Amino acid sequence: MGKIYGSAEEALDGLLFDGMLIAAGGFGLCGIPELCIAAIRDAGTKELVIASNNCGVDDFGLGLLLQTKQIRKMISSYVGENAEFMRQYLSNEIEVEFNPQGTLAERMRAGGAGIPGFYTKTGVGTIIADGKEHKDFDGETYILERGLVADLSIVKAWKADETGNVVFRKTARNFNPPAATCGKICVCEVEEIVPVGSLDPDEIHLPGVYIHRLIQGHHENRIEQRTTRARPASAAAGEEV
């Protein structure tokens, strides 16, 4: 069955429902499924629970769904640069389940691998461990974390072939692979779709068995934190430096 769809709206057709759990790839603004996020906003799906490292920025990425109050709960590691996320959290307008970054990535990976739970030392002795099972291994205390299985995964990759074999580019290979595997359905947006056989098997980061729907589109390259310094006076005057 063909996996390629003409737009994010078409790829998400029939998949969205209120209250669903969505796993979203990306880290900061790197490798985020921006086309799918915009399509979910336009669809008006509400009461969403979203598992993602962070929630974008105020006017981009998952921040768009914060603006429209479509997110009920975030499962994430970082409030970070999003002022609206912080405001909603502090005013009890949104529920946040904080996960250490490695724990969140492993919860996604475990869910995709059919592993219902795992033990980790991360978070022991902190509020992260509250209400969770504790177990000793070799004299060390561990807490039980549950694998995460989402109703839908939305991810962003560099390119894919027509069967959904995917290549991520550099640091966009962050939360995208585990997020893709933990969804019952995965929609992947890419910059380029190439013919089958164009990708060397050794360069494929995620096999097509995990990708159910595929779209190609244009993406922005935003910088989350732009840091610059003043140009040296000698350079400004045209001298060599």
UniProtKB/TrEMBL annotation:
Top-level taxon of the source organism? Bacteria
The organism's taxonomic lineage, starting at the top: Bacteria, Pseudomonadati, Pseudomonadota, Alphaproteobacteria, Rhodobacterales
Q: Where is the composition biased (Low complexity)?
A: 230-241
Pfam families linked: CoA_trans
- NCBIfam families in alphabetical order: pcaI_scoA_fam
PANTHER family cross-referenced by the UniProt entry: ACETATE COA-TRANSFERASE SUBUNIT ALPHA, KETOACID-COENZYME A TRANSFERASE
- Protein name (record): Succinyl-CoA:3-ketoacid-CoA transferase
Keyword match Transferase = yes
What family does this belong to? Belongs to the 3-oxoacid CoA-transferase subunit A family.
